[in-house]
Automatic annotation (TrEMBL):
UniProt topology in membrane: Multi-pass membrane protein
Name of the protein in question: Phospholipid-transporting ATPase
Molecular function terms, GO-annotated: ATP binding; ATP hydrolysis activity; ATPase-coupled intramembrane lipid transporter activity; magnesium ion binding
Organism: Cyanistes caeruleus
Entries under Gene3D superfamilies matching the protein: Calcium-transporting ATPase, cytoplasmic domain N, Calcium-transporting ATPase, cytoplasmic transduction domain A, HAD superfamily/HAD-like
UniProt similarity note: Belongs to the cation transport ATPase (P-type) (TC 3.A.3) family. Type IV subfamily.
A biological-process GO annotation: retrograde vesicle-mediated transport, Golgi to endoplasmic reticulum
Residue span(s) of domain P-type ATPase N-terminal: 46-105
EC number: 7.6.2.1
GO cellular component entries: endosome; plasma membrane; trans-Golgi network
InterPro entries hit by this protein: ATPase_P-typ_cyto_dom_N, ATPase_P-typ_TM_dom_sf, ATPase_P-typ_transduc_dom_A_sf, HAD-like_sf, HAD_sf, P-type_ATPase_IV, P-type_ATPase_N, P_typ_ATPase
Binding site for ATP: 483, 525, 549, 578, 658-660, 740, 746, 769-770
Subcellular location: Golgi apparatus, trans-Golgi network membrane; Membrane
Top-level lineage group: Eukaryota
């Protein structure tokens, strides 16, 4: 198997015959903890396997049919408080501990569990349907009886699978043969490395030579593959054919493989992968857990005090348990359900927000401190912006001049290709501007790795389009979108790339002539060399030319001396353009033959092959003629700059973790204003050992207010030897850019940020390569776009554009946090009030463990009488969304945790104790004859106090809040008729009852209202200054 990340690939033509080797890393998951071993697999003979392999099944479910109920219950009761409520309910079966009807304990617990089970079941069904769709996709399998249809889930290691155009590659495969003429296939790997460029894949030479696909079953051959590992960029294997004489041995590399979950050829891409569903625990859940632990401590203390005041008389240990049961309301069982239902409301509100269409989320309550995102802030649409020839520069507005120069060159000499004249003149003679422009454009049109591909368009079929080089049917495929932009630009100015295979290139001139060039050598781009070169022979003249293009840092030492290169490169880079330097060198036949002999010899050497090859190529790369600079812009997504500005002003640190190369990442960071114009950028040198890392860290330590750019390799070395020092320095930077990051590294950085800073992280990603980072972070946001749905399926939120992130955090993130804070405070206040009354009641009646309210009163209090008004707080908001967006500084208050700090919690505890005591003592003072009157007065006052407190807290009224208040009051008044068992109905109708309840309610609420008014008058919160 190959790497853990599923990704997307795009191949080249109608049918590619591929042979499946193994499913991702699921072999590690399905086969227990066994060490992965190398494998030998026979072509077309799954039965000849040497070990047991897992099924080719995608499974995103947490449970199966048998483990669902036990699993859900275990996940609920592994939390201490749920287990605590279960034990409470079970204790009611013991007669000595029973305090009232069984349903008063079992109904609330049953409701909480029912909500959880239904929610989990819905999630499981959704996952099952999604997996079933992927696993049921049909593929063609090559067998001795011909091709048969097979489901994706039934594909075995060793099967020969034909993958057609627009089909997802169902498993990791070895590429055996293709129907494409040039014998290659392009893959699109945006789910692997986040780049929407193309990767070239080559079939096994031995099998590509076979006359037909069915011949694959006639040969005796096998593949030896290394053991599965997480390195997705390398593969070591061999292909052996035994029945030829002599036996054929061919080495296999990553170029001969295709990754799972990829799609052949262009078209709508569907990507599915292993999503690791997780239990989300945010800052808010952690804060609430802390507060409930404090409440549990208070519960134990109060119970012990009550028993101590009885002098531990009689069976005191039973009394402790009875008091624990009696005061169990201190910990609200409904808190978790209220918060979960709140999240459903938040996600509904987010979905209904017309300003951020297409957003999906689970309503996670989240103020984040560190934001991490991939470098994909761009649209991956390259636009050619600038051609610079040293003395003159052409921008978008003057491209017609370039076009006229090209036309003039080709129309002056229709009888012979113009290259002859330009090449045969001595280079020292100053050429005309037209010929200089022509040389530059021709170099750009020849020096690349782009392949034009022709597709039928309904009018013209493929073969005809290819024969006549039909413009409307042509699309360009290349391993870099930059190169496609360059070739599209040469087409727009008159020199069109119309054909290419492994050994030749065809250009079409403005006059319609086809210019033929033979490719003699090609030196592909590598991240080490930062340049690519090509040697071509012009078929019409026999002239041999070596063209080269690359980054300015390496090309400056290769081209002839000039005084403008460095300055102009700097100017173009500051504009956010990706700059390439283009140069050429004319070679004589003797020079080329000499080079070729040395080059072939170097390629055959066994020791230091790459070094010897590089040395030979470098012998050509001297004193080259500088032709031009090209500037290509990768356009940013809309509103990226203001969004990042908003996040910075909100006090959120921004890190960019990208798979892009260093120059691209730096360019994007500047373009997006992640790094401001006044800030310096410290580019961390490539380090390979401890000593180098130490020196580079010291150099970085001396810089202040400086953005850091570091590559994945250097980062790994720093984290290995100086993890603490590096993280300390990096966290002080205003912005950090990590380039060439592997998916596992992204997740590692998130984990380190959480551990080292204790801050909360929000990861934003848009490709399968970001899944591990999204799942490691406290909150994951997936951007749905060109790179598929991989990231959005794994995330807590799914957005359609990066700019929506600002509103998601500033408006919805802030509102949901503040609302949940108010909601949890009220649920705790509601429970503490009734517990305080119980404590006062017990202490007045000689510390007896007798419940004040029984049966339906205790259930009704926390459900139909107060639930709706308290829950309606999820609709409250302190400022309008426009204000929250305009002043992102408001978000900073959340980062300090003020809405749910220990201070606010303590204030609410004191309010609860005050109100509970006033209501209980008031009822005891004012009642006249019967005990049942105490219950009527105190319970009615308690309900009214709770409704009034909600009304006092609301900042922006919503019509549903008014409905909730009136509904609760109506429910209470209507239910009094049925509660004659607990309340004297005739007493309620008297004037005496009404004035007593009114006085108690006013005494419990009025002082708090006065205090609140004075506080808002003399020490208003920051948001009220903006709303006034």
């Amino acid at each position: 198997g190959r790497g853990c990340e599923p990704e997307k690939c795009v191949g080249n033509d109608v049918v590619n015959d591929l042979w499946s080797l193994c499913r991702c890393c699921e072999c590690l998951r399905c086969c227990g903890r066994r060490e992965p071993r190398p494998r030998t697999v026979w072509l077309g003979h799954p039965e000849k396997r040497d070990q047991r392999y897992p099924r080719n099944v995608i499974n995103n479910q947490k449970y199966n049919f048998f483990t669902f109920l036990p699993g859900v219950l275990f996940n609920q009761f592994k939390y201490f408080f749920n287990l605590y409520f279960l034990l409470l309910a079970c204790s009611q079966f013991v007669v000595e501990m029973r305090l009232g009807a069984l349903y008063t304990y079992w109904v609330p617990l049953g409701f909480v569990l029912a909500v959880t089970v239904i929610r989990e079941a819905a999630e499981e069904i959704r996952c099952y349907m999604r997996d079933k769709e992927v696993n049921s996709q049909i593929y063609s399998k090559l067998t001795a009886r011909g091709t048969v249809k097979v489901k994706s889930s039934n594909i075995q290691v060793g099967d020969l699978i034909i993958v057609e155009k627009n089909q997802r590659v169902p498993a990791d495969m070895i590429f055996l043969r293709t129907s494409e003429k040039n014998g290659s296939c392009f893959l699109r790997t945006d789910q692997l490395d986040g780049e929407t460029d193309w990767k070239l894949r080559l079939p096994v030479t031995c099998t590509q030579r076979l006359p037909t696909a069915s011949d694959l079953l006639q040969i005796r051959s096998y593949v030896y593959a290394e053991e599965p590992n997480i390195d997705i960029h390398n593969f070591v294997g061999t292909f052996t054919r035994e029945d030829s004489d002599p036996p054929v041995n061919e080495s296999l590399s990553i170029e001969n493989t295709l990754w799972a979950s990829t799609v052949i050829a262009s078209g709508k891409v569907e990507s599915h992968g292993k999503l690791f569903l997780r239990e989300y625990i945010g800052l808010f859940d952690l804060e609430v857990n802390c507060l409930t632990k404090i409440l549990f401590g208070a519960l134990v203390v109060v119970s012990l005090v009550m028993v101590a005041l009885q002098h531990f008389a009689g069976r005191w240990y039973l009394q402790i348990i009875r008091f624990l049961l009696l005061f169990s309301n201190i910990i609200p069982i409904s808190l978790r359900v209220n918060l979960d239902m709140g999240k459903i409301v938040y996600s509904w509100v987010i979905r209904r927000d017309s300003k951020i269409p297409g957003v999906l989320g689970n309503g996670v309550v989240f103020p984040s401190m560190v934001l991490l995102f991939p470098g994909t802030l761009t649209q991956n649409e390259m636009v050619f912006k600038r051609l610079h020839l040293g003395t003159v520069a052409y921008g978008l507005d003057s491209m017609d001049e370039v076009q006229s120069h090209i036309f003039s060159i080709y129309t002056q000499q229709p009888q012979e290709p113009p290259a002859v004249k330009g090449l045969s003149l001595a280079t020292k003679v100053r050429r005309t501007m037209s010929s200089r422009v022509h040389e530059a454009v021709k170099a750009i049109a020849l020096c690349h790795n782009v392949t034009p591909v022709y597709e039928s368009n309904g009018v013209t079929d493929q073969a005809e389009a290819e024969r006549h080089y039909e413009d409307s049917c042509r699309v360009y495929q290349a391993s870099s979108p930059d190169e496609v932009a360059l070739v599209q630009w040469t087409e727009s100015v008159g020199l069109t790339l119309v054909g290419r295979d492994q050994s030749s290139v065809q250009l079409r001139s403005p006059g319609g002539h086809i210019l033929n060039f033979t490719i003699l050598q090609i030196f592909p781009f590598t991240y080490e060399s930062k340049r690519m070169g090509i040697i071509v022979r012009d078929e019409s003249t026999g002239e041999i030319t070596f063209y080269m293009k690359g980054a300015d840092v390496v090309m400056a030492g290769i081209v002839q001396y000039n005084d403008w290169l460095e300055e102009e490169c700097g100017n173009m880079a500051r504009e956010g353009l990706r700059v390439l330097v283009v140069a050429k060198k004319s070679l004589t036949e003797e020079q080329y033959q000499d080079f070729e002999a040395r080059y072939v010899q170097a390629k055959l050497s066994v020791h230091d092959r790459s070094l010897k090859v590089a040395t030979v190529i470098e012998s050509l790369e001297m004193e080259m003629e500088l032709l031009c600079l090209t500037g290509v812009e990768d356009q940013l997504q809309t509103d990226v700059r203001p969004t990042l500005e908003t996040l910075r002003n909100a006090g959120i640190k921004v890190w960019m973790l990208t798979g892009d190369k260093l120059e691209t990442a730096t360019c994007t960071a500047k373009n997006a204003h992640l790094v401001t114009r006044t800030q310096d950028i410290h580019i961390f040198r490539l380090v390979t050992n401890r000593g180098e890392a130490h020196l580079e860290l010291n150099a970085f330590r001396r810089k202040h207010d400086c953005a850091l750019v570091i590559s994945g390799d250097s980062l790994e070395v720093c984290l290995k030897y100086y993890e603490y020092e590096f993280m300390e320095l990096a966290c002080q930077c205003p912005a950090v850019v990590c380039c060439r990051c592997a998916p596992t590294q992204k997740a590692q950085i998130v984990r380190l940020l959480q551990e080292r800073t204790g801050k909360l992280t929000c990861a934003v990603g848009d490709g399968g390569n970001d899944v591990s980072m999204i799942q490691e972070a406290d909150c994951g946001v997936g951007v749905e776009g060109k790179e598929g749905k991989q990231a959005s399926l794994a995330a807590d939120f799914s957005i359609t554009q990066f700019k929506h992130l600002g509103r998601l955090l500033m408006v919805h993130g802030r509102n949901s946090y503040k609302r949940s804070a108010a909601l949890s405070q009220f649920v705790i206040h509601r429970s503490l009030c009734i517990s305080t009354m119980q404590a006062v009641f017990s202490s007045v009646f000689y510390f007896a463990s007798v419940p004040l309210y029984q049966g339906f009163l205790i259930i009704g209090y926390s459900t139909i009488y107060t639930m709706f008004p308290v829950f309606s707080l999820v609709l409250d908001k302190d400022v309008k969304s426009e204000v929250a967006m305009l002043y992102p500084e408001l978000y900073k208050d959340l980062l300090k945790g003020r809405p749910l700090s220990y201070k606010t919690f303590l204030i609410w505890v004191l309010i609860s104790i005050y109100q509970g005591s006033i209501i209980m003592y008031g009822a005891l003072l004012l009642f006249e004859s019967e005990f049942v009157h105490i219950v009527a007065i105190s319970f009615t006052s308690l309900i009214l106090t709770e409704l009034l407190m909600v009304a006092l807290t609301i900042q922006t009224w919503h019509w549903l809040m008014i409905v909730a208040e009136l509904l609760s009051l109506s429910c209470y008044i209507a239910s009094l008729v049925f509660l004659h068992e607990f309340i004297d109905v005739y007493f309620i109708a008297t004037l005496s009852f009404l004035w007593k309840v009114t006085v108690i309610t006013l005494v419990s609420c009025l002082p708090l209202y006065v205090l609140k008014y004075l506080r808002r008058r003399f020490s208003p919160p920051s948001y009220s200054k903006l709303t006034s």
